[in-house]
Amino acid sequence: MTLGNSYNLREVHRGTWCLGLDTSGKRLVVVGLGYVGVPVAAKFAEAGLQVTGIDIVERKVELINKGTCPFTGDEPGLADLLEKMVRNGRLNATTDYSVIQHADYVLIVVETPFDLRSREPYYKALRSACKSIGKNLRSGTLVVVESTVAPGTTNNIVRPILEAESGLKAGEDFFLATAPERVMPGKLLHNITYLDRNIGGINPESTGRALELYSLIAKGNLHPTDAITAEVVKTTENAYRDVQIAFANEIALLCENIGVDVYEVRELVNKLEDRHMLMPGAGVGGHCLPKDSWLLAFGTRGKHEPKLIAVAREINDGMPRHMSELCESALREAGRGVYGSRITILGLAYLRNTDDTRNSPAFPLIKALEVLGAIPTVHDPYVREANGIKPLADLDEAIEGSDCIAIVTEHSQYYDLDLDHVKSLMRTPIIVDGRKVVDKEECIKKGFIFRGIGR
User: Fold this and answer.
1) β partners of residue 245
2) DSSP 55
3) 148 with 36: CB under 8 angstroms?
4) Neighbour tally for 412: CB within 10 Å
């Protein structure tokens, strides 16, 4: 098919329009084998492409080449799909960037952390990946940035590095687009397949080629746009959710002080058809929400300083500290000080039933408790180790002798707590619920001192 103006850059739906890409002999390389890279590599392999994943972590490469999923959380269908694609020779992994010399498509799916002190994106991984890709880039290849980046990054950072390292011209010799991911742990394959996708190239030819590629795996709508608009949309949608969560947390704090239950308030507010108040909680974690508001703001640095976004971040960042205050309050009611008290943290992952601990609110809570002299013990059924913390795998062991349980993550296991058994193990029966996991009245009836976000 001829490129360029022959592409009708309009809303595309897999069920009604598809460019019909011939996948025979086509090779795709995914740079970065994390929570986005692994499932997207498996999906493109399933679609018929020969896929190679690149990662600097040798252990991860070894696991994938054995057909073993590197994640321990509940990811429906991913382990089976990965094993199948590796077994049939459609998918493999390496640390060697030279495989890009034979690639028709390259996806950049590396992490883009944010320095909260300088409020600047930390693009070390992105720059390094682009340099290595550029050194091996051949003419005609399509490069797609799936990583979430600040507005302007594709054109102002990725493009110059690729051009300088390859000696090729973007939009002419090779093609460049951004197609920001919309995944969430626990729904990786589902979101890649069924959610709408915004695809923006640096020129119409790049957008068209990216539409052609993603039509292989997308059952949702593909929305063509330009690169910077796609970047703004992705950071805006996460900033929007962050602000919504901050509103819920603000109301929760207000309800605590008034003496009403925020969850009843939320339920009744949402009876109105056009209202959708989100759930408050112990804090906001994950790779995206804690930083994407600042990525969006970074795009207008020196010109406009967002106020609402900044306040929302302050509220959400303060929730782990509030959890610490609730623990302190409950211990005081029990006649104990925080110093020397054993506090059991239930959940180190930021999201239920996953092993993803990125920016988990459990970390600042643990730090706040340690500053007060408490002795935190952590339990998580999915996380083996993170940031030097090794959660206990046995729940009874984690609870035994504890003076307070702080529920940070709503893992399914925690909904089934036997309160009589839990109380028998504890030295001081206190529960601080940051996720509305346990029944407040039942806890009080069983003899617990109870505290909860917004309750």
Assistant:
1) none
2) -
3) no
4) 11
State residue 301's pLDDT score.
Answer: 82
**Closest C-alpha to 85, from 42, 145, 50:** 42
| Res. 54: pLDDT tops 70 | yes
What are the structural domains, with CATH classification, of the chain? 4-225 (3.40.50.720), 307-452 (3.40.50.720)
Catalytic residue among 69, 130, 255, 288: 288
pLDDT digits (tens, 9 = 90+) for 140-149: 999 999 999 9
> Which helix (H) or strand (E) segment is 295 a member of?
helix 289-298
Is 234 among the residues known to form the active site? yes
114-123, 284-293, 326-335, range with greatest mean pLDDT: 326-335
Torsion over CA: 132, 135, 141, 144 (sign)? positive
Catalytic residue, chosen from 60, 234, 291, 436, is 234
Is 201:168 a contact under the CB 8 Å cutoff? no
Non-local (6+) Cβ contacts of 136 within 8 A are 97, 98, 99, 100, 101
For CA atoms 425, 429, 434, 436, give the dihedral sign.
Answer: positive
* CA dist., res. 432 & res. 282, Å (int): 10
Q: What per-residue confidence (pLDDT) applies to 20?
A: 59
First to last CA, the chain: 61
Structure tokens at 436: 């509305």
User: How far is 387 from 408, CA to CA, in rounded Å?
Assistant: 17
* Greatest alpha-carbon span in the chain: 77
Distance CA 315, CA 290 (A): 11
Provide the mean pLDDT of the chain.
Answer: 93
Query: Is 443 marked active-site?
Result: no
Confidence of residue 6 (pLDDT cuts 50, 70, 90): very low
Question: 310: which 2 tokens?
Answer: 């900044």
State the DSSP string of 17-44: -------TT-EEEEE--STTHHHHHHHH
Q: Hey, which residues does 197 pair with through a beta bridge?
A: 222
Q: Which of 106-110, 228-232, 304-308, 387-391 has the lowest mean pLDDT?
A: 304-308
